[in-house]
Amino acid sequence: MVARVEVTPAAQAVIERLAALHGPLMFHQSGGCCDGSAPMCYPRNEFRVGAQDIYLGTIVETPFFIGAAQFEYWSHTQLIIDVVPGRGAGFSLEAPDGVRFLTRSRVFSDDEAVALDAAGPPLHGDQWASGTASS
After folding, report:
1. Record's InterPro entries (predicted)?
2. Distance from C-alpha of 110 to C-alpha of 70, rounded to nearest angstrom
3. Residue 60 to residue 86: CA distance in whole angstroms
4. Residue 8 burial (CB < 10 Å; 0-12/13-18/19+)?
5. 133 is a domain residue
6. Is residue 131 part of a domain?
7. Which domain covers residue 58, as residue numbers?
8. What's the structural domain count of the chain?
C-alpha cells in the first residue's frame, strides 16, 4: 500500500513527545493563507473533521487530514511531515517549543499513482469519524 503521508524521524520524535503530554493527537492541513497551509497538530478531541476534509493516513498513531481543496493540489504527491526550528503563527501544539511542523513532498511514481488509483479515493473526514476507518 502506498502511503499518502509519511513522517521524518525528527517529526516522529516531536509527535511522540506531544502525545505523551496531550494524549491522542490529530493533524489537519488546510488551504488557508500564511500558516493555515502548514500541518497543524491538535488534541484529537479538539478538532472536528467533516465532509470537506480528506483522511490521508496515519503517522505515529495520529490521523492526518487535509482540506479537500488543498488535496486537489497535493493529490499527486506524498506528503512528508517534518519539523524545523521556528514558531508558526497557529495553534499547533508544537508552537511553544520553538519548532513547527512543515510539509515536504515528492511526486508519486507512475507505479504508485496506478496503485493509488486502484485503491480508490481516500475517505472524507465524516466517513472516517463515523467509524469507517479505525481511529
Report:
1. DUF779
2. 21
3. 22
4. middle
5. no
6. no
7. 5-120
8. 1
Using DSSP, state whether 23 is helix, strand or coil: coil
pLDDT tens sequence for the chain (135 residues) = 899 999 999 999 999 999 999 999 999 998 766 555 789 999 998 989 999 999 999 999 999 999 999 999 999 999 999 999 987 767 899 988 899 999 999 999 999 999 999 999 999 999 998 874 444
- Global pTM? 0.91
HSE of 108 in the Cβ direction (CA atoms, 13 Å)? 20
On whether residue 125 sits in a domain, the answer given is no
Instruction: Give the integer Cα–Cα distance in Å for 121 and 126.
Output: 14
Q: Is position 32 within any domain?
A: yes
Q: Which residue is associated with the grid cell 524521524?
A: 9
pLDDT at residue 91, as a whole number: 84
- Ramachandran assignment for 61, one of left (phi > 0), alpha (psi -120 to 50 degrees), beta (any other): left
Q: Which domain CATH number covers 40?
A: 2.60.300.12
